[in-house]
What we know:
Blueprint: E1 2-4, E2 7-9, H1 18-26, H2 38-49, H3 56-75, H4 80-90, H5 99-106, H6 115-128
Antiparallel strand pairs: 1-2
Helix pairs in contact: 2-3, 4-6
Amino acid sequence: MESRRNQVLIPNLRQLPxxxxxxxxxxxxxxxIGQLAPQTLADIFALADAGEQLPTALARxxxxxxxxxxxxxxDLPDGAELxxxxxxxxxxxxxxxxxxxxxxxxxxxxxxxSEEVVGALREAVARWEGVEPAPVSIPEPAPAPAAAAMPAxxxx
Length: 156
């Protein structure tokens, strides 16, 4: 896990095996939206949408956290912090933004008056228009190595 500009980045979060994912996610589940790097934020939303591939408790925790992040996004003031968040997301490949995050961002267009925020949001919508979000496929755990057969003891 890296921290850049006081933001937590967990590289390739949506590509981690479940066991490692459970550990890494616990480190971010209570962070406010502004402390998540754009890639980590997008990965959290994508993983929350992939609940059927995850253990029940982890799927529930991710869905609850995603809902909390959507509320935090709506509560951000119309200004530099929101514009910076959207600009950071605009640096990601458009297919990296899951549908739920796209919907949450598009919902911010209404009621925002800052030219910087509205411009960043419009750029985001234009970037992902016609681009399908990449599907999330949680890797299967590697099979446990077969126990080496013990040679049979020779009778004496």
